[in-house]
Structure prediction request, 597 residues.
Amino acid sequence: MPAEQRRGRAQETELWIARVRLLAVVFAVLEVGVLTQDYPSGYETVAWITTALFAVGAIVFFFVTREAFTPLIGLAALVFDAAVIAAFATLYSFEYGSPTSWALMFVVVEGALRYGVLGATGVSIALVPYLVFIEWWRSREFDGPGFLVDRVTFPFGVFLITGLIVGWLVNRLSREAVLADTRAAEAESLRDQLGRRVDLLEATNRCARALASSLEIDHAFGAFIRELRGLIDCDRVTIVLVEAGRAEVLAAAGRGTDTVFPAGSARPVRGSVLEDVLEGKLVYRPTMQADLYPEEQDLLALGLRSRVLAPLQVGPRTIGMLGFVRAEEDGFSTEEIELVSLLGRLVATAVQNIRAYEAERTTADELRRLSALRADFVSLVSHELRSPMAAVIGASRTLQARWRELTADQRQSFLALIGDETSRLADLIGDVLDTSRIEAGTFSFTFSDVDLGEVLRDVVAAADLAQDEVRVSAEVGGALPHVRGDRERLRQIVQNLVDNAVKYSPAGAEVRVSANSDDGWLRIAVADDGPGIPFDDQKIIFDKFGRATVEGGTKPGTGLGLFIARSIAEAHGGSLDVDSAPAHGSVFTLELPLGEV
Ligand code: ADP
Prediction:
Protein backbone atom coordinates (compact mmCIF):
# COMPACT_ATOMS: atom_id res chain seq x y z
CA MET A 1 0.00 0.00 0.00
CA PRO A 2 1.49 3.41 -0.83
CA ALA A 3 2.65 5.50 2.17
CA GLU A 4 0.17 8.27 1.32
CA GLN A 5 -2.74 5.86 1.52
CA ARG A 6 -1.46 4.31 4.76
CA ARG A 7 -1.26 7.73 6.39
CA GLY A 8 -4.80 8.55 5.21
CA ARG A 9 -6.13 5.38 6.84
CA ALA A 10 -4.27 6.01 10.12
CA GLN A 11 -5.59 9.58 10.20
CA GLU A 12 -9.11 8.27 9.68
CA THR A 13 -8.71 5.88 12.65
CA GLU A 14 -7.19 8.62 14.79
CA LEU A 15 -10.03 11.01 13.98
CA TRP A 16 -12.58 8.40 14.92
CA ILE A 17 -10.81 7.80 18.28
CA ALA A 18 -10.69 11.60 18.80
CA ARG A 19 -14.47 11.80 18.30
CA VAL A 20 -15.08 8.93 20.73
CA ARG A 21 -12.76 10.72 23.17
CA LEU A 22 -14.96 13.83 22.96
CA LEU A 23 -17.98 11.67 23.81
CA ALA A 24 -15.99 10.19 26.71
CA VAL A 25 -15.51 13.73 28.06
CA VAL A 26 -19.32 14.14 28.28
CA PHE A 27 -19.49 10.74 29.95
CA ALA A 28 -16.76 11.73 32.44
CA VAL A 29 -18.61 14.97 33.33
CA LEU A 30 -21.76 12.97 34.01
CA GLU A 31 -19.89 10.41 36.11
CA VAL A 32 -17.96 13.01 38.09
CA GLY A 33 -20.75 15.55 38.58
CA VAL A 34 -23.98 13.53 38.72
CA LEU A 35 -23.44 9.84 39.25
CA THR A 36 -20.74 9.88 41.94
CA GLN A 37 -21.48 11.15 45.45
CA ASP A 38 -19.74 10.94 48.81
CA TYR A 39 -16.22 11.89 47.63
CA PRO A 40 -13.60 11.93 50.37
CA SER A 41 -12.56 15.51 50.99
CA GLY A 42 -10.61 17.09 48.17
CA TYR A 43 -11.28 14.21 45.77
CA GLU A 44 -14.09 15.94 43.90
CA THR A 45 -11.88 18.92 43.07
CA VAL A 46 -9.15 16.60 41.73
CA ALA A 47 -11.83 14.76 39.74
CA TRP A 48 -13.01 18.00 38.15
CA ILE A 49 -9.45 19.11 37.40
CA THR A 50 -8.76 15.73 35.77
CA THR A 51 -12.00 16.04 33.76
CA ALA A 52 -11.07 19.56 32.65
CA LEU A 53 -7.58 18.39 31.56
CA PHE A 54 -9.20 15.47 29.76
CA ALA A 55 -11.60 17.84 27.95
CA VAL A 56 -8.82 20.19 26.89
CA GLY A 57 -6.69 17.28 25.71
CA ALA A 58 -9.62 15.73 23.82
CA ILE A 59 -10.35 19.01 22.02
CA VAL A 60 -6.68 19.59 21.18
CA PHE A 61 -6.24 16.07 19.80
CA PHE A 62 -9.44 16.40 17.78
CA PHE A 63 -8.30 19.54 16.03
CA VAL A 64 -4.69 18.49 15.65
CA THR A 65 -5.73 15.17 14.12
CA ARG A 66 -8.16 16.90 11.79
CA GLU A 67 -5.40 19.11 10.41
CA ALA A 68 -2.61 16.57 9.97
CA PHE A 69 -1.39 13.27 11.26
CA THR A 70 1.94 11.83 12.28
CA PRO A 71 2.56 8.53 14.07
CA LEU A 72 3.84 10.60 16.98
CA ILE A 73 0.39 12.19 17.49
CA GLY A 74 -1.10 8.68 17.73
CA LEU A 75 1.47 7.66 20.34
CA ALA A 76 0.93 10.89 22.29
CA ALA A 77 -2.86 10.34 22.23
CA LEU A 78 -2.38 6.78 23.54
CA VAL A 79 -0.20 7.97 26.42
CA PHE A 80 -2.62 10.84 27.15
CA ASP A 81 -5.63 8.49 27.26
CA ALA A 82 -3.75 6.01 29.46
CA ALA A 83 -2.73 8.83 31.84
CA VAL A 84 -6.27 10.30 32.10
CA ILE A 85 -7.93 6.91 32.68
CA ALA A 86 -5.23 5.93 35.19
CA ALA A 87 -5.80 9.21 37.02
CA PHE A 88 -9.57 8.57 37.19
CA ALA A 89 -9.00 4.96 38.25
CA THR A 90 -6.61 6.02 41.03
CA LEU A 91 -9.07 8.71 42.11
CA TYR A 92 -12.00 6.38 42.30
CA SER A 93 -10.13 3.59 44.04
CA PHE A 94 -11.58 5.03 47.25
CA GLU A 95 -14.70 3.08 46.26
CA TYR A 96 -13.79 -0.57 46.86
CA GLY A 97 -14.58 -2.56 43.73
CA SER A 98 -14.82 0.57 41.52
CA PRO A 99 -14.94 -0.53 37.84
CA THR A 100 -13.11 2.61 36.67
CA SER A 101 -9.82 0.81 36.11
CA TRP A 102 -11.65 -1.39 33.56
CA ALA A 103 -11.84 1.72 31.41
CA LEU A 104 -8.16 0.99 30.66
CA MET A 105 -9.63 -1.48 28.19
CA PHE A 106 -10.15 1.60 25.98
CA VAL A 107 -6.35 2.11 25.91
CA VAL A 108 -5.74 -1.55 25.03
CA VAL A 109 -8.26 -1.34 22.16
CA GLU A 110 -6.60 1.89 21.01
CA GLY A 111 -3.24 0.09 20.98
CA ALA A 112 -4.79 -2.72 18.94
CA LEU A 113 -6.41 -0.29 16.50
CA ARG A 114 -3.16 1.56 15.97
CA TYR A 115 -0.56 -1.18 16.09
CA GLY A 116 -2.50 -4.47 15.76
CA VAL A 117 -1.73 -7.56 17.88
CA LEU A 118 1.69 -6.24 18.84
CA GLY A 119 0.24 -2.93 20.03
CA ALA A 120 -2.46 -4.65 22.11
CA THR A 121 0.08 -6.99 23.76
CA GLY A 122 2.50 -4.13 24.39
CA VAL A 123 -0.13 -1.90 25.98
CA SER A 124 -1.47 -4.75 28.16
CA ILE A 125 2.03 -5.49 29.48
CA ALA A 126 2.76 -1.77 29.96
CA LEU A 127 -0.34 -1.48 32.15
CA VAL A 128 0.78 -4.21 34.59
CA PRO A 129 2.93 -1.89 36.80
CA TYR A 130 -0.02 0.49 37.03
CA LEU A 131 -2.39 -2.35 38.02
CA VAL A 132 0.07 -3.36 40.76
CA PHE A 133 0.34 0.25 41.92
CA ILE A 134 -3.38 0.88 42.11
CA GLU A 135 -4.02 -2.35 44.04
CA TRP A 136 -1.24 -1.44 46.46
CA TRP A 137 -2.63 2.11 46.73
CA ARG A 138 -6.15 0.90 47.43
CA SER A 139 -5.01 -1.62 50.06
CA ARG A 140 -2.90 1.02 51.73
CA GLU A 141 -5.20 4.04 51.67
CA PHE A 142 -8.65 2.61 52.07
CA ASP A 143 -10.57 0.01 54.06
CA GLY A 144 -11.02 -3.42 52.60
CA PRO A 145 -8.91 -6.45 52.05
CA GLY A 146 -5.15 -6.22 51.66
CA PHE A 147 -3.19 -6.48 48.35
CA LEU A 148 -4.90 -9.08 46.18
CA VAL A 149 -2.75 -10.49 43.35
CA ASP A 150 -5.87 -11.67 41.63
CA ARG A 151 -6.97 -8.04 41.23
CA VAL A 152 -3.85 -7.52 39.11
CA THR A 153 -3.71 -10.72 37.08
CA PHE A 154 -7.39 -10.88 36.22
CA PRO A 155 -7.67 -7.46 34.54
CA PHE A 156 -4.31 -8.05 32.83
CA GLY A 157 -5.58 -11.37 31.41
CA VAL A 158 -8.85 -9.83 30.24
CA PHE A 159 -6.99 -6.86 28.69
CA LEU A 160 -4.57 -9.18 26.89
CA ILE A 161 -7.24 -11.54 25.54
CA THR A 162 -9.49 -8.70 24.37
CA GLY A 163 -6.49 -6.89 22.91
CA LEU A 164 -5.37 -10.01 21.03
CA ILE A 165 -8.81 -10.51 19.52
CA VAL A 166 -9.19 -6.87 18.44
CA GLY A 167 -5.55 -6.75 17.31
CA TRP A 168 -6.03 -9.85 15.17
CA LEU A 169 -9.15 -8.33 13.60
CA VAL A 170 -7.25 -5.14 12.90
CA ASN A 171 -4.35 -7.07 11.35
CA ARG A 172 -6.71 -9.04 9.18
CA LEU A 173 -8.56 -5.92 8.11
CA SER A 174 -5.36 -4.22 7.09
CA ARG A 175 -4.24 -7.29 5.13
CA GLU A 176 -7.53 -7.28 3.32
CA ALA A 177 -7.27 -3.59 2.69
CA VAL A 178 -3.85 -4.16 1.13
CA LEU A 179 -5.29 -6.97 -0.99
CA ALA A 180 -8.22 -4.83 -2.08
CA ASP A 181 -5.87 -1.99 -2.98
CA THR A 182 -3.64 -4.32 -5.01
CA ARG A 183 -6.69 -5.67 -6.85
CA ALA A 184 -7.92 -2.16 -7.53
CA ALA A 185 -4.50 -1.18 -8.88
CA GLU A 186 -4.42 -4.31 -11.04
CA ALA A 187 -7.91 -3.61 -12.36
CA GLU A 188 -6.88 -0.07 -13.17
CA SER A 189 -3.77 -1.16 -15.04
CA LEU A 190 -5.82 -3.80 -16.92
CA ARG A 191 -8.32 -1.11 -17.85
CA ASP A 192 -5.49 1.11 -19.08
CA GLN A 193 -4.02 -1.77 -21.08
CA LEU A 194 -7.42 -2.52 -22.56
CA GLY A 195 -7.85 1.13 -23.42
CA ARG A 196 -4.48 1.19 -25.13
CA ARG A 197 -5.35 -1.97 -27.08
CA VAL A 198 -8.63 -0.44 -28.23
CA ASP A 199 -6.77 2.69 -29.35
CA LEU A 200 -4.26 0.50 -31.15
CA LEU A 201 -6.98 -1.48 -32.84
CA GLU A 202 -8.73 1.68 -33.98
CA ALA A 203 -5.49 3.13 -35.34
CA THR A 204 -4.70 -0.15 -37.11
CA ASN A 205 -8.18 -0.09 -38.58
CA ARG A 206 -7.65 3.43 -39.80
CA CYS A 207 -4.39 2.31 -41.45
CA ALA A 208 -6.14 -0.63 -43.10
CA ARG A 209 -8.91 1.69 -44.33
CA ALA A 210 -6.30 4.12 -45.67
CA LEU A 211 -4.64 1.29 -47.60
CA ALA A 212 -7.97 0.29 -49.08
CA SER A 213 -8.99 3.87 -49.79
CA SER A 214 -7.58 3.93 -53.30
CA LEU A 215 -6.56 1.54 -56.02
CA GLU A 216 -3.81 3.95 -57.04
CA ILE A 217 -0.73 2.65 -55.27
CA ASP A 218 0.70 6.14 -54.59
CA HIS A 219 -2.55 7.49 -53.11
CA ALA A 220 -3.15 4.42 -50.98
CA PHE A 221 0.35 4.46 -49.50
CA GLY A 222 0.37 8.23 -49.04
CA ALA A 223 -2.84 7.94 -46.97
CA PHE A 224 -1.44 4.93 -45.10
CA ILE A 225 1.73 6.74 -44.09
CA ARG A 226 -0.32 9.71 -42.86
CA GLU A 227 -2.41 7.40 -40.65
CA LEU A 228 0.69 5.61 -39.36
CA ARG A 229 1.64 8.64 -37.30
CA GLY A 230 -1.29 7.90 -34.97
CA LEU A 231 -0.10 4.33 -34.52
CA ILE A 232 3.67 4.35 -34.23
CA ASP A 233 5.45 7.59 -33.79
CA CYS A 234 8.76 7.26 -35.57
CA ASP A 235 11.27 9.50 -37.31
CA ARG A 236 11.12 7.87 -40.72
CA VAL A 237 9.03 5.28 -42.49
CA THR A 238 9.62 3.64 -45.87
CA ILE A 239 7.81 1.16 -48.07
CA VAL A 240 10.05 -0.66 -50.53
CA LEU A 241 9.11 -3.08 -53.30
CA VAL A 242 11.64 -5.49 -54.75
CA GLU A 243 11.69 -6.58 -58.35
CA ALA A 244 14.44 -8.29 -60.33
CA GLY A 245 17.03 -7.78 -57.58
CA ARG A 246 16.33 -4.06 -57.27
CA ALA A 247 14.63 -2.34 -54.38
CA GLU A 248 12.41 0.58 -55.33
CA VAL A 249 11.18 3.03 -52.70
CA LEU A 250 7.43 3.18 -53.19
CA ALA A 251 6.67 5.70 -50.47
CA ALA A 252 8.69 7.40 -47.76
CA ALA A 253 7.99 9.96 -45.06
CA GLY A 254 9.94 11.60 -42.28
CA ARG A 255 13.55 12.62 -41.85
CA GLY A 256 15.67 13.05 -44.99
CA THR A 257 13.18 11.54 -47.43
CA ASP A 258 14.01 14.18 -50.04
CA THR A 259 17.69 13.30 -50.10
CA VAL A 260 18.23 9.77 -48.78
CA PHE A 261 16.38 7.00 -50.66
CA PRO A 262 13.55 9.28 -51.82
CA ALA A 263 10.30 7.81 -53.17
CA GLY A 264 10.89 6.49 -56.69
CA SER A 265 14.60 5.83 -56.18
CA ALA A 266 15.98 2.32 -56.62
CA ARG A 267 19.12 0.47 -55.55
CA PRO A 268 20.39 -3.10 -55.72
CA VAL A 269 19.26 -5.50 -53.01
CA ARG A 270 22.65 -7.23 -52.88
CA GLY A 271 24.63 -6.43 -49.74
CA SER A 272 21.75 -4.61 -48.04
CA VAL A 273 19.68 -5.73 -45.07
CA LEU A 274 16.94 -6.51 -47.59
CA GLU A 275 18.70 -9.77 -48.38
CA ASP A 276 17.65 -10.99 -44.92
CA VAL A 277 14.18 -9.45 -45.14
CA LEU A 278 13.59 -11.19 -48.47
CA GLU A 279 14.00 -14.51 -46.70
CA GLY A 280 10.76 -13.60 -44.91
CA LYS A 281 12.50 -12.51 -41.69
CA LEU A 282 11.59 -9.52 -39.57
CA VAL A 283 14.83 -7.66 -38.91
CA TYR A 284 15.37 -5.45 -35.85
CA ARG A 285 18.51 -3.31 -35.85
CA PRO A 286 18.74 -1.81 -32.34
CA THR A 287 21.96 -0.04 -33.34
CA MET A 288 22.71 0.54 -36.99
CA GLN A 289 26.27 -0.07 -38.21
CA ALA A 290 27.52 1.11 -41.56
CA ASP A 291 30.22 -1.58 -41.75
CA LEU A 292 27.55 -4.30 -41.64
CA TYR A 293 25.05 -2.76 -44.05
CA PRO A 294 26.46 0.12 -46.13
CA GLU A 295 23.03 1.75 -46.62
CA GLU A 296 22.91 2.44 -42.87
CA GLN A 297 25.70 5.00 -43.36
CA ASP A 298 23.21 7.46 -44.90
CA LEU A 299 20.64 6.85 -42.17
CA LEU A 300 23.25 7.31 -39.42
CA ALA A 301 24.27 10.58 -41.08
CA LEU A 302 20.66 11.74 -40.65
CA GLY A 303 20.97 11.14 -36.89
CA LEU A 304 18.92 7.94 -36.97
CA ARG A 305 20.03 5.01 -34.83
CA SER A 306 17.63 2.05 -34.84
CA ARG A 307 15.21 0.47 -37.30
CA VAL A 308 12.72 -2.36 -37.74
CA LEU A 309 12.11 -3.93 -41.15
CA ALA A 310 9.09 -6.14 -41.73
CA PRO A 311 8.82 -8.32 -44.85
CA LEU A 312 5.88 -7.76 -47.19
CA GLN A 313 4.84 -11.32 -47.66
CA VAL A 314 2.44 -12.55 -50.32
CA GLY A 315 2.05 -16.27 -49.74
CA PRO A 316 5.56 -17.72 -49.64
CA ARG A 317 6.97 -14.76 -51.61
CA THR A 318 8.45 -11.61 -50.09
CA ILE A 319 7.74 -8.67 -52.36
CA GLY A 320 9.35 -5.91 -50.32
CA MET A 321 9.57 -4.41 -46.87
CA LEU A 322 8.07 -1.88 -44.51
CA GLY A 323 10.70 -0.04 -42.49
CA PHE A 324 10.45 2.16 -39.39
CA VAL A 325 13.46 4.17 -38.22
CA ARG A 326 14.04 6.04 -34.96
CA ALA A 327 16.65 8.48 -33.70
CA GLU A 328 17.11 6.62 -30.41
CA GLU A 329 19.25 3.53 -30.07
CA ASP A 330 17.20 0.42 -29.31
CA GLY A 331 14.15 2.60 -29.92
CA PHE A 332 11.48 -0.09 -30.40
CA SER A 333 9.61 -2.11 -27.77
CA THR A 334 8.62 -5.75 -28.31
CA GLU A 335 4.99 -4.71 -28.82
CA GLU A 336 5.98 -2.14 -31.43
CA ILE A 337 8.06 -4.71 -33.30
CA GLU A 338 5.04 -7.05 -33.34
CA LEU A 339 2.90 -4.21 -34.59
CA VAL A 340 5.33 -3.46 -37.42
CA SER A 341 5.15 -7.10 -38.44
CA LEU A 342 1.34 -6.93 -38.49
CA LEU A 343 1.45 -3.73 -40.53
CA GLY A 344 3.82 -5.49 -42.96
CA ARG A 345 1.13 -8.09 -43.57
CA LEU A 346 -1.50 -5.37 -44.10
CA VAL A 347 0.70 -3.54 -46.60
CA ALA A 348 1.54 -6.77 -48.45
CA THR A 349 -2.15 -7.59 -48.86
CA ALA A 350 -2.84 -4.08 -50.10
CA VAL A 351 0.01 -4.25 -52.63
CA GLN A 352 -1.30 -7.59 -53.85
CA ASN A 353 -4.84 -6.26 -54.20
CA ILE A 354 -3.71 -3.16 -56.05
CA ARG A 355 -1.47 -5.20 -58.35
CA ALA A 356 -4.26 -7.66 -59.06
CA TYR A 357 -6.54 -4.75 -59.86
CA GLU A 358 -3.91 -3.14 -62.08
CA ALA A 359 -3.31 -6.41 -63.93
CA GLU A 360 -7.03 -6.80 -64.42
CA ARG A 361 -7.36 -3.23 -65.62
CA THR A 362 -4.44 -3.66 -68.04
CA THR A 363 -5.98 -6.84 -69.39
CA ALA A 364 -9.35 -5.16 -69.76
CA ASP A 365 -7.75 -2.15 -71.49
CA GLU A 366 -5.79 -4.48 -73.76
CA LEU A 367 -8.90 -6.45 -74.61
CA ARG A 368 -10.78 -3.23 -75.34
CA ARG A 369 -7.92 -2.01 -77.51
CA LEU A 370 -7.71 -5.31 -79.36
CA SER A 371 -11.42 -5.41 -79.97
CA ALA A 372 -11.34 -1.81 -81.27
CA LEU A 373 -8.35 -2.73 -83.42
CA ARG A 374 -10.14 -5.76 -84.75
CA ALA A 375 -13.14 -3.65 -85.70
CA ASP A 376 -10.83 -1.11 -87.35
CA PHE A 377 -9.00 -3.93 -89.08
CA VAL A 378 -12.16 -5.41 -90.52
CA SER A 379 -13.22 -2.09 -91.95
CA LEU A 380 -9.63 -1.33 -93.07
CA VAL A 381 -9.10 -4.64 -94.79
CA SER A 382 -12.49 -4.57 -96.44
CA HIS A 383 -11.74 -1.06 -97.63
CA GLU A 384 -8.22 -2.02 -98.72
CA LEU A 385 -9.60 -5.03 -100.53
CA ARG A 386 -12.58 -3.31 -102.05
CA SER A 387 -10.84 -0.42 -103.78
CA PRO A 388 -8.22 -2.46 -105.70
CA MET A 389 -10.83 -5.08 -106.54
CA ALA A 390 -13.24 -2.44 -107.80
CA ALA A 391 -10.44 -1.02 -109.93
CA VAL A 392 -9.51 -4.48 -111.31
CA ILE A 393 -13.15 -5.37 -112.02
CA GLY A 394 -13.81 -1.98 -113.61
CA ALA A 395 -10.69 -2.15 -115.83
CA SER A 396 -11.28 -5.74 -116.96
CA ARG A 397 -14.98 -5.06 -117.73
CA THR A 398 -14.03 -2.01 -119.78
CA LEU A 399 -11.39 -3.99 -121.68
CA GLN A 400 -13.93 -6.75 -122.32
CA ALA A 401 -16.76 -4.48 -123.48
CA ARG A 402 -14.76 -1.91 -125.43
CA TRP A 403 -11.68 -3.86 -126.59
CA ARG A 404 -12.07 -2.83 -130.25
CA GLU A 405 -12.79 0.84 -129.59
CA LEU A 406 -9.75 1.30 -127.29
CA THR A 407 -6.36 2.31 -128.64
CA ALA A 408 -3.32 0.14 -127.91
CA ASP A 409 -2.07 2.70 -125.36
CA GLN A 410 -5.39 2.75 -123.54
CA ARG A 411 -5.47 -1.05 -123.40
CA GLN A 412 -1.91 -0.95 -122.07
CA SER A 413 -2.77 1.44 -119.27
CA PHE A 414 -5.87 -0.60 -118.20
CA LEU A 415 -3.67 -3.72 -118.08
CA ALA A 416 -1.04 -1.87 -116.05
CA LEU A 417 -3.76 -0.73 -113.62
CA ILE A 418 -4.95 -4.34 -113.24
CA GLY A 419 -1.35 -5.44 -112.64
CA ASP A 420 -0.69 -2.73 -109.96
CA GLU A 421 -3.94 -3.29 -108.09
CA THR A 422 -3.58 -7.07 -108.07
CA SER A 423 -0.08 -6.81 -106.67
CA ARG A 424 -1.43 -4.45 -103.94
CA LEU A 425 -4.01 -7.12 -103.16
CA ALA A 426 -1.31 -9.80 -103.12
CA ASP A 427 0.81 -7.66 -100.73
CA LEU A 428 -2.16 -7.15 -98.42
CA ILE A 429 -2.98 -10.84 -98.34
CA GLY A 430 0.73 -11.57 -97.83
CA ASP A 431 0.81 -9.25 -94.78
CA VAL A 432 -2.29 -10.82 -93.26
CA LEU A 433 -0.85 -14.30 -93.81
CA ASP A 434 2.56 -13.31 -92.35
CA THR A 435 0.84 -11.87 -89.29
CA SER A 436 -1.14 -15.00 -88.61
CA ARG A 437 2.02 -17.11 -89.10
CA ILE A 438 3.96 -14.92 -86.63
CA GLU A 439 1.14 -15.31 -84.13
CA ALA A 440 1.01 -19.06 -84.63
CA GLY A 441 4.80 -19.34 -84.42
CA THR A 442 5.04 -20.89 -87.87
CA PHE A 443 6.82 -18.02 -89.60
CA SER A 444 9.78 -19.74 -91.23
CA PHE A 445 13.15 -18.39 -92.38
CA THR A 446 15.80 -19.61 -94.75
CA PHE A 447 19.19 -18.41 -93.57
CA SER A 448 22.18 -17.63 -95.76
CA ASP A 449 24.92 -14.96 -96.01
CA VAL A 450 23.22 -11.80 -97.15
CA ASP A 451 24.82 -8.74 -98.71
CA LEU A 452 22.46 -6.10 -97.40
CA GLY A 453 24.29 -3.35 -99.34
CA GLU A 454 23.03 -4.95 -102.54
CA VAL A 455 19.53 -5.40 -101.14
CA LEU A 456 19.44 -1.71 -100.14
CA ARG A 457 20.58 -0.50 -103.54
CA ASP A 458 17.95 -2.69 -105.29
CA VAL A 459 15.11 -1.54 -103.08
CA VAL A 460 16.14 2.12 -103.31
CA ALA A 461 16.52 2.01 -107.09
CA ALA A 462 13.13 0.31 -107.51
CA ALA A 463 11.40 2.75 -105.15
CA ASP A 464 12.95 5.73 -106.93
CA LEU A 465 11.86 4.44 -110.31
CA ALA A 466 8.35 3.45 -109.24
CA GLN A 467 7.24 7.05 -108.67
CA ASP A 468 8.46 10.52 -109.45
CA GLU A 469 7.15 12.59 -106.53
CA VAL A 470 9.75 11.67 -103.91
CA ARG A 471 13.44 11.19 -104.49
CA VAL A 472 14.90 8.09 -102.82
CA SER A 473 18.64 7.96 -102.32
CA ALA A 474 21.05 5.47 -100.77
CA GLU A 475 24.19 6.40 -98.85
CA VAL A 476 26.02 3.13 -98.46
CA GLY A 477 29.71 3.79 -97.93
CA GLY A 478 31.65 0.96 -99.56
CA ALA A 479 30.96 -2.72 -99.08
CA LEU A 480 28.95 -3.70 -96.01
CA PRO A 481 29.82 -6.80 -94.00
CA HIS A 482 27.50 -9.66 -94.76
CA VAL A 483 24.89 -10.69 -92.24
CA ARG A 484 23.49 -14.11 -91.66
CA GLY A 485 19.78 -14.02 -92.35
CA ASP A 486 16.82 -14.63 -94.60
CA ARG A 487 17.46 -12.48 -97.65
CA GLU A 488 13.81 -12.14 -98.69
CA ARG A 489 12.57 -11.36 -95.19
CA LEU A 490 15.30 -8.72 -94.70
CA ARG A 491 14.39 -7.22 -98.06
CA GLN A 492 10.78 -7.16 -96.85
CA ILE A 493 11.81 -5.00 -93.87
CA VAL A 494 13.80 -2.53 -95.96
CA GLN A 495 11.05 -2.45 -98.58
CA ASN A 496 8.44 -1.70 -95.94
CA LEU A 497 10.49 1.10 -94.37
CA VAL A 498 11.25 2.70 -97.75
CA ASP A 499 7.62 2.33 -98.95
CA ASN A 500 6.34 3.95 -95.73
CA ALA A 501 8.88 6.79 -96.00
CA VAL A 502 7.81 7.46 -99.60
CA LYS A 503 4.13 7.11 -98.72
CA TYR A 504 4.28 9.63 -95.87
CA SER A 505 6.66 12.13 -97.54
CA PRO A 506 5.26 15.25 -99.21
CA ALA A 507 5.80 15.67 -102.96
CA GLY A 508 9.31 16.95 -103.75
CA ALA A 509 10.83 15.61 -100.54
CA GLU A 510 13.67 13.16 -100.26
CA VAL A 511 14.02 9.79 -98.52
CA ARG A 512 17.55 8.91 -97.42
CA VAL A 513 18.63 5.36 -96.79
CA SER A 514 21.98 4.89 -95.09
CA ALA A 515 23.91 1.96 -93.67
CA ASN A 516 27.00 1.52 -91.50
CA SER A 517 28.53 -1.07 -89.22
CA ASP A 518 30.43 -0.96 -85.94
CA ASP A 519 30.71 -2.87 -82.65
CA GLY A 520 29.51 -6.03 -84.34
CA TRP A 521 26.25 -4.44 -85.48
CA LEU A 522 24.92 -3.39 -88.86
CA ARG A 523 22.66 -0.32 -88.78
CA ILE A 524 20.32 0.69 -91.57
CA ALA A 525 18.49 3.98 -91.24
CA VAL A 526 15.61 5.19 -93.39
CA ALA A 527 14.99 8.91 -92.90
CA ASP A 528 12.23 11.08 -94.31
CA ASP A 529 10.88 14.60 -93.96
CA GLY A 530 7.29 13.46 -93.57
CA PRO A 531 4.78 14.45 -90.87
CA GLY A 532 6.61 12.57 -88.10
CA ILE A 533 4.98 10.39 -85.48
CA PRO A 534 3.61 11.65 -82.15
CA PHE A 535 5.61 10.26 -79.22
CA ASP A 536 2.64 8.37 -77.72
CA ASP A 537 2.06 6.58 -81.03
CA GLN A 538 5.67 5.47 -81.49
CA LYS A 539 5.12 2.31 -79.44
CA ILE A 540 1.74 1.51 -80.99
CA ILE A 541 2.92 1.52 -84.60
CA PHE A 542 4.96 -1.63 -83.97
CA ASP A 543 1.88 -3.39 -82.61
CA LYS A 544 -0.43 -5.42 -84.77
CA PHE A 545 -2.84 -3.06 -86.64
CA GLY A 546 -1.19 -0.14 -84.86
CA ARG A 547 -1.42 3.10 -86.81
CA ALA A 548 -0.42 6.61 -85.82
CA THR A 549 -2.64 9.65 -85.97
CA VAL A 550 -1.07 11.39 -88.93
CA GLU A 551 -1.49 15.13 -89.51
CA GLY A 552 -3.43 15.87 -92.67
CA GLY A 553 -5.33 12.54 -92.78
CA THR A 554 -4.27 8.91 -92.80
CA LYS A 555 -2.89 7.15 -95.85
CA PRO A 556 -4.18 3.76 -96.96
CA GLY A 557 -2.67 0.89 -94.98
CA THR A 558 -3.38 -1.84 -92.46
CA GLY A 559 -0.89 -1.22 -89.68
CA LEU A 560 0.67 -4.67 -90.19
CA GLY A 561 3.90 -3.76 -92.02
CA LEU A 562 5.95 -2.56 -89.02
CA PHE A 563 4.63 -5.35 -86.81
CA ILE A 564 5.91 -7.90 -89.32
CA ALA A 565 9.15 -5.96 -89.86
CA ARG A 566 9.99 -5.82 -86.14
CA SER A 567 9.12 -9.51 -85.71
CA ILE A 568 11.54 -10.38 -88.53
CA ALA A 569 14.26 -8.11 -87.06
CA GLU A 570 13.87 -9.73 -83.63
CA ALA A 571 13.96 -13.22 -85.14
CA HIS A 572 17.39 -12.21 -86.52
CA GLY A 573 18.52 -11.14 -83.03
CA GLY A 574 18.17 -7.49 -84.02
CA SER A 575 15.78 -4.63 -83.41
CA LEU A 576 13.69 -2.03 -85.21
CA ASP A 577 13.04 1.37 -83.68
CA VAL A 578 11.92 4.82 -84.62
CA ASP A 579 13.14 8.27 -83.72
CA SER A 580 10.62 10.88 -84.71
CA ALA A 581 8.86 14.06 -83.72
CA PRO A 582 5.77 15.61 -85.30
CA ALA A 583 6.73 17.96 -88.18
CA HIS A 584 10.37 16.81 -88.01
CA GLY A 585 10.24 13.66 -90.09
CA SER A 586 11.06 10.14 -88.94
CA VAL A 587 14.14 7.94 -88.86
CA PHE A 588 13.55 4.18 -88.67
CA THR A 589 16.65 2.24 -87.64
CA LEU A 590 17.11 -1.46 -88.23
CA GLU A 591 19.93 -3.04 -86.23
CA LEU A 592 21.21 -6.51 -87.03
CA PRO A 593 24.02 -8.43 -85.35
CA LEU A 594 26.97 -9.38 -87.51
CA GLY A 595 28.19 -12.94 -87.49
CA GLU A 596 26.32 -16.11 -86.60
CA VAL A 597 22.75 -15.65 -85.41
P1 ADP B 1 0.60 0.85 -92.69
O1 ADP B 1 1.61 1.74 -93.30
O2 ADP B 1 0.09 -0.19 -93.61
O3 ADP B 1 -0.45 1.57 -91.93
P2 ADP B 1 2.80 0.06 -91.03
O4 ADP B 1 2.87 -0.95 -89.92
O5 ADP B 1 3.83 0.00 -92.06
O6 ADP B 1 1.35 0.01 -91.59
O7 ADP B 1 2.89 1.46 -90.33
C1 ADP B 1 2.17 1.69 -89.15
C2 ADP B 1 1.89 3.15 -88.97
O8 ADP B 1 3.09 3.83 -88.68
C3 ADP B 1 1.36 3.85 -90.18
O9 ADP B 1 -0.04 3.71 -90.25
C4 ADP B 1 1.76 5.30 -89.96
O10 ADP B 1 0.81 5.89 -89.11
C5 ADP B 1 3.04 5.16 -89.20
N1 ADP B 1 4.23 5.31 -90.04
C6 ADP B 1 5.02 4.36 -90.57
N2 ADP B 1 6.04 4.89 -91.23
C7 ADP B 1 5.91 6.23 -91.16
C8 ADP B 1 6.67 7.35 -91.69
N3 ADP B 1 7.77 7.17 -92.41
N4 ADP B 1 6.23 8.58 -91.38
C9 ADP B 1 5.13 8.76 -90.64
N5 ADP B 1 4.37 7.76 -90.14
C10 ADP B 1 4.76 6.52 -90.39
